[in-house]
Amino acid sequence: MKRFDERDTIFARFSYKEGSPEYEDYYKRNPDIKEADDKMRQPPFPYGEGTATFTPLNSAIAGATFRFLADVSKFSEGEINPQKVEIEPAVITKKLKGLAKFYGAQLVGVTKLKEEYYYSHRGRKAENYGEEVHNIHKYAIVFATEMDKDMINRAPLIGEGIEVTKGYVNTAVIGMILSYYLRELGYNARNHMDGNYLLIAPLVAEAAGLGQIGRSGILITKKYGKRVRLGVVTTNLELLIDEREDFGITQFCEICGNCAMVCPGKAIPKENRKEIDGALRWKIEPENCFDIWKKVGTDCGVCISTCPFSQGVEGDLVEKMKGQPELMERIFKEFKEKHGTRTFNSSPHEWL
């Protein structure tokens, strides 16, 4: 599987300032998208003035959160205690999972890393633009924190965006604690968090058994659906791994397609998967998605709230649905009867 270049992500391209070295290099190599990307970088910006949901008080909450995350991301790596503590894989695996949940994770898994889970080159920040990613660790501890259903059901309004940024903070803190702890024990460890990933978190989470990637390119978990944020800590310390789990999401997404139908930017394909780089998958149009972010002023989140699994599917049905299209049809029908095309509610907090 081909490694993805972080420079090609919409977030990296959005950050390239005209006339900068990274701007000149990127569009020298990709002249065909320069005009469209230049337009993309024109205001308004997500959470900024001129967008449909902007308010000076509430939009600043998300802006402040992203600024905080940017400030602390430099602590994702650090000094390693030269006095290494010898510890059995079973013992440390159990302790790391317990610690992650103690600090607020709902789901935790461990997987052995493959090279293709990592970006080939960095591209999000000017100081490391174009660097090849070589520091590949052997194992990953990946964890998910739940996002509040009532807040997510405000999508695409500002309440949804505030909840998403809170999820990034929660996973960043958990990742910091785990990575600092492992380095204190004498082992190299890195926290992968918002704005400072070296890898693609949904791929790692799927490999560790936390869920499956669906039609919209987002991880779907059994209990919380898409209402999770992901964090990853990587290390070379020997750990016990979890198994990937196929509980039927690919087939369910082929039957459902609700996220594609309601996507305001038509970024999610309505047709079935196609072969891309040797693998069958759905191809998302990130430019269309980001265009909606710029218009509404949040990260939208409509595809998260409109997934039947985000609203909750009865546990025994989830366990039984694999290979049972009739049961999948029933799950989707019951979702539509209860929620319609999508669920939307008033703000759950009086301060919003």
From TrEMBL:
PANTHER family: IRON-SULFUR CLUSTER-BINDING PROTEIN (PTHR42827:SF1), IRON-SULFUR CLUSTER-BINDING PROTEIN-RELATED (PTHR42827)
A Pfam family per the record: Fer4_7
4Fe-4S ferredoxin-type domain ranges (all copies): 243-273
Statement: the UniProt record of this protein carries the keyword Iron-sulfur: yes
Key word Metal-binding present: yes
Domain of life: Bacteria
InterPro entries registered for this protein in UniProt: 4Fe4S_Fe-S-bd, 4Fe4S_Fe_S_CS
Keywords carried by this UniProt record: Iron, Iron-sulfur, Metal-binding
GO MF terms held by the record: iron-sulfur cluster binding; metal ion binding
Protein name: 4Fe-4S dicluster domain-containing protein
